[in-house]
Design a protein that fits this description.
This protein is an alpha+beta fold. It is 22% helix and 15% strand. The strands form two sheets. A six-stranded antiparallel sheet has the order 2-1-3-4-6-5. The longest helix is centred in the last third of the chain and has 15 residues, at 156-170.
């Protein structure tokens, strides 16, 4: 079996609603997922009471999209080929496909499923895209007994430089900003007299 039974359910689960049981508590958003039970999202307090000895991963948010820490998911899943990022000092990867920004058309490497620009030698932009790729190619494997080794560290300034370069490539010239260089947002206009 190349795809674990919990993966599709994880990818289709809605995360971050308020827990029905612990809605009044401070940490009541449903951002945990039990790989043993495979039964939807739950909160921190449900984990303590119902999933104490189970294999649980925590889902986080980045730019309104669900991410999981590489250190949690690579123990149970082969994440080779999926682009990783460093967000708030933690290596993460996205669970599902994200919409492609209109300005990012200049990348030479793209996701094999959705066509999103990739920043390195990766094949997929998310776990969801890798799952689609696995289903298309039955020889590929998703389960792993070891660990993944490929990670791309992207700082916010580097990300901004890449966005600027991709946007400039659309206008047929290259602009390589330095940290001290800033682009204007538009043509300056004087206030009316």
């Amino acid at each position: 079996m190349s795809v674990p039974p919990w993966l599709e359910k994880l990818l289709s689960t809605e995360f971050f609603p308020v827990c029905r049981t612990h809605g009044d508590a401070a940490r009541s958003e449903c951002n945990m997922y039990c790989l043993d039970c495979n039964d939807g999202a739950f909160c921190f307090y449900c984990k303590s009471s119902k999933h104490k000895e189970h294999q649980v991963i925590q889902i986080r948010r980045s730019s309104y999209h669900n991410v999981v820490r590489v250190s949690e998911i690579e123990k149970v899943l082969n994440i080779d080929g999926v682009q990783t990022y460093v967000i708030n000092s933690a290596k993460v990867l996205f669970l599902n496909e994200r919409p492609q920004p209109k300005s990012a058309k200049g990348g030479s490497r793209i996701c094999q499923v959705c066509g999103r620009s990739l920043l390195d030698i990766f094949l997929f932009c998310s776990l969801g895209c890798k799952l689609v790729g696995i289903k298309r190619n039955e020889n590929a494997r998703c389960i792993l007994e070891g660990k993944s080794s490929t990670t791309r560290v992207i700082s916010p300034t580097r990300t901004r430089r890449i966005e600027i370069m991709m946007n400039e490539e659309e206008h047929h010239h290259i602009y390589t900003p330095t940290p001290s260089t800033r682009r204007r947002k538009g043509i300056p206009h004087r206030a009316p007299n």
